[in-house]
Amino acid sequence: MRMKHKKMTGALLAAIMAASLLAGCSSNGTNHNNSGAEPGAAASPSATAGEKNEAPVEITWGIHFQAAGVVENSEVQKWLEQKFNVKIKPVKVTDASIASGEVPDIFMLGDPANVSAYQNQGVLSSIDPSMLKEKMPEYYADIEKNSKLFQTVTFNNELWAIPMFIDEKKPYDLGMLWRKDWLTNVGIAKTPESLEEFEQAVYAFAEKDPDQNGQKDTYGLTGTATSTWSSGFYSVFGAFGVEPTMWHERGGEIVNGSVLPETKEALAKLRQWYADGVIDPEFITDTQDSYRKKLYNGRIGVIEEQIAKAALPESATITEMKSLNPEAELAFAKNPVGPGGSGSWNWGVKSNFVVFGSKVADQPEKLEKLFEILRAQSSDEETINMTSLGVKGTHWDFAESGAASGATKFLAGFEKQEQRDQQGIRLFSLGNITMQAYREKYSNPALHEAIQTYSDSPSWTDALLFSALPSDGKYKADLTSLMQKYFAQIISGEIPLEDFDKFVTEWKARGGDELTKEANEMYQAQFKN
Amino acid sequence: MKTIRKHGELLALFLFAFLFFFVFKYGPLYGVLIAFKDFRVVDGIWGSPWVGLQHFIDLFQNSDFYRLLKNTLLLNLYLLLFAFPAPIVLALLLNEVRSRYFQRFIQTTMYLPHFVSWVIMSGLVIYFLSPTSGIVGEIAGWFGQEPVFYMGKKEYFRPIVVVSAILKDLGWGSIIYFAALAGINPEMQESAIIDGANRWQRMLKINIPSIMPTIAIMFILSLGGFLSANFEQIINLLNPVTTETGDVIDTYVYRVGLQQFQYSYTAAIGLFKSLVGLLLILGANLAVRKLSKGESGLW
Fold first, then answer.
1. Which of A148, B4, B18, B86 is the most exposed place for a label (fewest CB within 10 A)?
2. What's this model's pTM, rounded to 2 decimal places?
3. Does A481 sit within 8 Å of B27, measured CB to CB?
4. Cβ contact (<8 Å) for B27 and A12?
């Protein structure tokens, strides 16, 4: 019986290996290496490392989740291996690789919800906060100011991730990016500030032929109902003081932004705009990918965009627009102010999370090493620069020649993220684990000023800092899809506005009430000052 | 021992097939166990606790389940009614074309869409059907019709899926029928011509009956995947407005299961689908055997 069982596992393992090999190949076509294979090698190698002190510790490292694929033995990897006397095995983390039991020693997750899901699967190792304080004193001093972030990844009274933080006002806060030349063409001198002015402008874009080609082929704005809920309309909901799916605090109570009376008012407005031909009907099929293209192609006149991508003349979206349509003029502005204030979808101070694989718990010398590297990634300028920027003079330099601080730029041949990935830059970078002092030294003063000008932070962010509720796994995806369905139909006039009340009833019955109860409990226990 | 030596080569050949099926089909069946367990990655398949039929009970009690089942069944029924016969009709018609070059040309061009992924294909479909820039709306405009936003109306979703499925796989699906038609003994055709049968009569009396066994087998096989509607196609065409009619079991599994580590629950759904598929295959095979008086069918 035993033998049989073992054989079966063997066969299964072979199958999984083959499958992950295939998955690896297809997902990172540009790289000759693949990530998922060789689960055997991922198993603990510590037995050898413990015997001799000088033998390097082997670390399986889950590369940055935005990187397309593993690049083995990159320059940065060799540099890290030498500096810290370790042997690094970079792997790409996917849900499938985790499910087959290959858990890297260290990797990054984006949301408390991910941390919660991984923790439920038992693949994470808990982290002793006092050890964090002892091993990374500089970082701890910084993160303590945002200590609520610890609550978002504390389950069963244990900490499961090292939270990273970002300033309340940050480069990826959203504002409005207008077609300045269109505004001029329809006789509007200044970029809209209030919701009324916003409304006038988008109506004019739809009706007054802003591109002056004599055809009615333009719209005010669009949304992305199919991919996420729903960039394009965040600022409009924000003007009514709500963001659907977020938890808001209203007089000590935690309520969900999907089902508030203000949400209905915002929907009524959007519905009116749709009926009057101001919203591109294709908002239903538009995705994150096609959103900016609509602006580039002169089909819509305003989008929601991150400050870092649109506020400065050299920002990505501005330069892209210029290269596609040199005549177009763009202007960045704040979110419209409506009856409920102003603001857009805002991630708050939360950044990504660093987690340790469950096997690390039994390997103190490995844990020690990981903390050593983390501390360097947080407070050692050389290590931070090497992992996130590369070699100065080869891969990057300060934007101002000869400067010793301020904005940085990548040098020719390394401007694209994919080119840098080949050198290993970013693969092992943990982003916002750097301490405050480093960030200040390397910040771009112009961008910093733009952020102060345009950011509406903290409007509107999640009252629970995007924590995962115990029953989120059970209900959340379903409730979000229910919300998307109703909202898209209400805006496009498929169903009457009054059906919003039906939606609220359905939302509550299908798990919303339970989540609201949990959200309030969590708020009372962990977030209330 | 003697037999082993005697049929050594045959056995060696069989071994490949056996290994393939054992490693990729029968081995992983062990994993089906997780449908009856509460699977956690650390505990592994065997170590996770048993929960009996809990996941199946959850599934049948889910208020969405019947909508999903209905959508899945209806969509597949339409596909069976329209998309299944389409390649047969194409093969029969092209078989009557006299110019061999024209025939080959049509065949080859019709294979092409099969190699385009659904991500791209659905992008094209959405673009063609766009009320403002799509070619379909444009053509409707010539006849004074107001353009319709097909992708934004839930009642059009199933027809769109069926039509786009036909467009994509029509040529590819017809290959096997071409092969079957090519296998018909030309003497039958010749004697029919001498007897004065016209093309229509020959098609009805010779071509169709000759490829009937192929059709029957393809029919049975397609029933096996009856509940596994084209996931790739649907997930790429689906949008919030059309979930009412377009959300099927597979898209639901993707949404709630794989995105949230609910492996056990989704394995239970998969097992349920396979069970329905198996019953349909058995039923269809029985029916085919009855109708053909035991001459046709898988076994």
1. B4
2. 0.82
3. no
4. yes
